[in-house]
Design goal:
Blueprint: H1 4-9, H2 12-20, E1 30-36, E2 39-46, E3 48-50, E4 55-56, H3 69-82, H4 107-111, H5 136-145, H6 160-174, H7 178-187
Antiparallel strand pairs: 1-2, 3-4
Helix pairs in contact: 3-6
Length: 208
């Protein structure tokens, strides 16, 4: 923890007061940690991690990182490229030839959102709740039946489905699950004991 002088220098009490003003004890909230040069200036939890059960947030609360997970998928792909297990110029048809424009789309297109693959505009565009886990084949089939938005490399358009497919490519290239690959090559080596992929097989205590 930073010294009292350092906390005062960086207005820790004012920052904490401001953060507290953003929520209340009966609403969903957040956890925070502010550090400078490796020393903690302020940390805490505000609001509720679980409204139904009135469980408050704390510095131990685990939150879904949502699309922040894309950076870990990208790192995994680049690791495999360094190992020679794939290349960024590999065509999608090498892994999923049934998908639209698979003979044109490269792994690099998937990484930088220039593939043109169909991407849902609204949750209701899927025939299943977007938050639900569904069989991979069902998800792929729905991407397959929708026309691409544009030709690969022609434009940029944010695409969750690209990273869904990249995760599957990682599994094909390594013969292990994406969860296992990230745990053994990223999270464990970095000491990220409270980070991982949440699914049917993995649950975390203290989850918001």
């Amino acid at each position: 923890m930073a010294s009292k002088e350092t906390q005062e220098k960086y207005n820790a009490s004012r920052v904490e007061s401001y953060l507290k003003s953003l929520t209340d004890a009966n609403s969903s909230g957040f956890s925070y940690l502010i550090a400078k040069d490796g020393l903690i200036i302020a940390k805490g939890g505000l609001g509720l991690a679980n409204i139904e059960n009135q469980i408050p947030n704390s510095t131990d609360t685990i939150f879904r990182a949502a699309s922040i997970t894309k950076q870990f998928t990208a790192v995994s792909i680049l690791q495999l490229a360094d190992q020679g297990k794939l290349t960024l110029d590999d065509k999608l048809e090498k892994y999923f030839p049934e998908l639209p424009n698979a003979e044109k789309i490269t792994i690099k297109n998937l990484l930088n959102h220039t593939s043109g693959l169909w991407q849902q505009e609204r949750d209701e565009d899927f025939p299943f709740p977007i938050e639900n886990e569904v069989p991979v084949t069902q998800h792929l089939a729905y991407i397959q039946q929708n026309k691409p938005f544009f030709e690969p490399g022609e434009k940029w358009k944010y695409c969750d489905n690209c990273y869904f497919i990249l995760g599957l490519i990682i599994e094909k290239a390594t013969n292990v699950s994406l969860e296992t690959y990230m745990k053994t090559t990223i999270f464990d080596p970095l000491g990220m004991k409270n980070s991982g992929l949440k699914g049917k097989t993995t649950q975390y205590e203290n989850s918001a």
